[in-house]
Design brief:
The complex is a heterodimer of chains A (about 270) and B (about 290). Chain A is mostly helical. Helices cover about 75% and strands about 0% of the residues of chain A. Chain B starts with 5 loop residues before the first strand and ends in a 7-residue tail after the last helix. The chains are: A mainly alpha (about 270), B alpha/beta (about 290).
Chain lengths: ~270, ~290
């Protein structure tokens, strides 16, 4: 007998599939639902009126179209910045974990510093200094600032893994480093790193939304959830859907990511 | 040029640096001949595992030289060093930790053969079957993962993996201590068999004098990182020169009868010199308990 899926599993499946469809077919969707198309006659239309499912904003732009465009933006930035942080952090963490060296000392200092200093404040400062001209400046800033999270976990777990006797036996065989990492070290890190990846992704969604809320990161006029939230403040009482829609989207995506992370943690442990 | 297979000269193993440094092995020197089983014996924390790990290349010696067939083992770096090191393989103490839990036994035994470029898949399979027969394991185990095996079976797989590298020296670091008495006896027979059939030398690390007496040709007794007695097993068992060796022997045979007070053994282990000397003195007064 097949077990009935739990509601959290259903939520994860629905949200993940939805995100995937929006990411993969974003161009096609935007051709039908243009997030920038303005209809002055339909300004601040309520949900389910004038053909708008979730209403329209002060310029008569479709909220659904802007939510979908914002989803593409947020998920793309969160995915790419997490990938960059993962690649740098895991590589440096594992190299430093293999042998105690100057790299281990430097890495410990960097991770201590970043633990003490809020990453978001650092991101705001860097983007403010370097300027923001599209997706890559945000991706690189978030990725380059948050890699110590992965480095810390990879270093701590890597130290223990390199002391495991089957890894010592593999080293005594004269196995190449690449084979050693791919066959013995990385697979042992999968449980903790996969959970960390998901939680980091959720953090990056929040960080990106906060940056665009402050008006840094996304180009002016871009449809992002943070910008939508920021713009909605003026019409909070007259058009609450402008606030509820992006806030609800952020909450659903974060809760789904957190649930998926917890699910992974339970499964891998 | 030395004729010994392994020649360890004034080996020092030091943990840490500066004031906190601990010298775990102090100027240890010994030789192992081809086909010889040499046991390094001592109580827990005496430095015998550090010595084994130094010889195996896992720990970097602070001083001294290790020669294998006359060639230094510690000097070279990189690929050349790793190829030279393949002649020395190790079986570890914990059978649960020495095999990758995610791999099948077949994959575990295939790995050293792939690393050494042993041949195609058919040749490797034949070699794996040969190794399984050598360590007396059923071929059906090849498809299983380590968690499905007993402690003794896991240690046999670890031995087979080490033998797949065709080593000249096999180091067994407390390889029997996690096993029950029956499994220990079977494994001791297996080590003899491996030595007799393959002619490889074995460095056997143990705290168990009885097992050492059963297995080794020669014995090094180590205390606080120093070798206090070294010689043929029969001679040392019959007439130990060092009081510490006598104590170890007595403790192995019948600690209560030998010492009268089992707390003195703990005193010895804790390093309280006054009590330890009392234990040795009491033991020396009753030589019949050693014999």
């Amino acid at each position: 007998m097949i077990a009935r899926p739990h509601w959290t599993t259903l939520l994860m499946a629905v949200v993940a599939s939805f995100c995937l469809v929006v990411i993969l077919f974003g161009g096609l969707i935007e051709a039908r639902l243009d997030p920038h198309a303005m209809l002055q006659d339909n300004r601040l239309s309520a949900p389910l009126s004038h053909g708008y499912l979730l209403g329209s904003d002060e310029f008569g732009r479709d909220v659904v179209a802007r939510l979908l465009a914002g989803l593409r933006w947020s998920v793309s930035i969160a995915t790419l910045s997490t990938a960059i942080a993962f690649a740098i952090g895991v590589t440096l963490g594992l190299v430093a974990a293999r042998r105690e060296s100057w790299l281990s000392t430097v890495l410990r200092q960097i991770t201590t510093f970043t633990q003490a200093f809020p990453a978001f404040v650092l991101a705001v400062t860097v983007i403010a200094i370097l300027g923001s001209d599209g997706i890559w400046s945000v991706v690189l800033t978030l990725g380059l600032i948050t890699w110590p999270v992965f480095a810390r976990v990879s270093y701590a777990e890597g130290r223990a893994i390199f002391q495991r006797e089957y890894v010592l036996a593999a080293e005594m065989m004269g196995m190449s480093r690449i084979r050693l990492y791919l066959r013995h070290v990385l697979p042992s890190l999968i449980p903790s790193l996969s959970v960390l990846l998901v939680f980091h992704f959720a953090d990056m969604i929040i960080a990106e939304s906060a940056l665009s809320f402050l008006g840094i990161g996304a180009p002016l006029g871009a449809a992002t959830w943070g910008a939508m939230l920021s713009e909605s403040r003026t019409y909070m009482y007259d058009a609450p859907w402008l606030l509820i829609a992006p806030a609800g989207a952020i909450v659903i995506l974060i809760i789904t990511a957190q649930l998926f992370g917890q699910h992974l943690r339970e499964r891998t442990q | 040029m030395t004729s010994a297979l392994l020649d360890v000269q004034d080996l020092d193993i030091v943990y840490g640096k500066g004031r906190g440094a601990h010298r775990a092995v102090k100027a240890a020197s010994f030789q192992i001949q081809r086909g010889e089983i040499l046991a390094v014996v001592g109580e827990s924390g005496c430095g015998k595992s550090s010595l084994a790990r130094g010889v195996a290349g896992i720990l970097q010696p602070a001083a001294g030289r290790i020669l294998l067939d006359g060639a230094p083992l510690g000097g070279a770096r990189g690929r050349a060093a790793s190829v030279a090191r393949r002649a020395v393989q190790m079986v570890f103490q914990d059978p649960d930790a020495s095999l990758n839990p995610n791999h099948t036994i077949g994959a575990i035994l295939d790995e050293p053969l792939i690393v050494t470029g042993f041949g195609d898949a058919a040749a490797r399979r034949a070699r794996i079957e040969e190794l399984m027969a050598l360590v007396r394991l059923d071929l059906a185990l090849l498809e299983r993962r380590p968690r499905a095996l007993s402690g003794g079976q896991k240690q046999r797989v670890a031995i087979a993996r080490a033998l797949a590298m065709s080593p000249r020296l096999l180091i067994a670091d407390e390889a029997l201590s996690a096993l029950d008495l029956t499994a220990q006896a079977r494994m001791a027979t297996l080590f003899h068999d491996i030595r007799d059939r393959l002619g490889i030398a074995i460095l056997f690390i143990s705290h168990d004098m009885r097992m050492v007496a059963q297995l080794a040709d020669t014995v090094c007794v180590i205390r606080d990182g120093e070798i206090v007695e070294h010689g043929p097993t029969r001679e040392i068992m019959a007439a130990p020169r060092s009081p510490y060796t006598r104590l170890l022997l007595a403790a192995a045979l019948d600690p209560k009868a030998a010492l009268g007070d089992p707390d003195l053994l703990d005193a010895l282990a804790s390093g309280e010199s006054e009590k330890a000397d009392m234990a040795v003195a009491r033991l020396l007064a009753r030589p019949e308990s050693v014999a």
